[in-house]
Amino acid sequence: MKQETKNWLLLILLSIIWGSSFMLMKRGMHSLTGEAIFSDQQVGALRMTFAGLILLPVGLFYLTKRKIKTIKQFISILAVGLFGNFIPAFLFTYAEQGLSSGYTGMLNSFTPVFTIILGAVIFKSKLTSKQLTGLLISIIGVALLIKTGSNQIGNTGDSAWKYTLAVVAATLCYATSLNLIKHTLGKFKAIETTSLAFTFTLAPALFFIWKSDAITTIKTNSFAYEGLFFIGILALVGTAFAVILFNHLTISSTTLFASSVTYLIPIVAVLIGVGFGEKITPYQVGAMLVVLAGIYVANRKKNAQLKAFK
Length: 310
Hints:
single chain; mainly alpha; disordered C terminus
């Protein structure tokens, strides 16, 4: 099988996994019948702790093999752990207190926009006229999509903006991590980067388990094990396994192609959200399509236009 075909298959698989993760976060905070289970901080901490424990033996193995040889590599992997996993885990659960999982999935389409910007500004990647055109189109869509945050049910004005901006901040973190993997950790295998990153973030995750009093909730909440079931799936499949796949995709393709998983994530998230009774407005769908149209313009004819990202 050609590498390009493998990359497209990975892209589709990741879109299904991550598109469903927004609802899994919801189910960690609220049961299927609507009862409160874990807080947003507890879900984020449990998710990162489970994923960290799963990958800890692998991470320790690579540490003993001295895979990290320089301070720069250590800082880069730590930054990937924080920006690519730890911080977004808390930002997304915070945002889903006030936003639907479908709309949150739409906002995740900002990632390629920030990937282009950070790649050009920080890593000096060259932008073609097509990429600049696509970027401008996407920025218009971003502005329109952010504006729809005030239309979320149960939230108006500033209360909706803070949840929307939390997702935007998370996508900026993702874009930062993606560029770091491509430009500073290209010699590392996907499993090496992922396991080491989660090993480094396990200690702060355990701290937040203690700080958020998640253990008490597990002992006292009658729906705790239902929530733990969904968080476990989120950690094992949607975090540890998916991040390994994504890091592999980033290394084997381009940063822009890998971040374009957000072409399909919103579609999966919206379909699942609607299946659980969430409402998505035509205005939100239209704004998302503008963002994705810009990404498409920037990403097409990649062989001729994306050499700077390879």
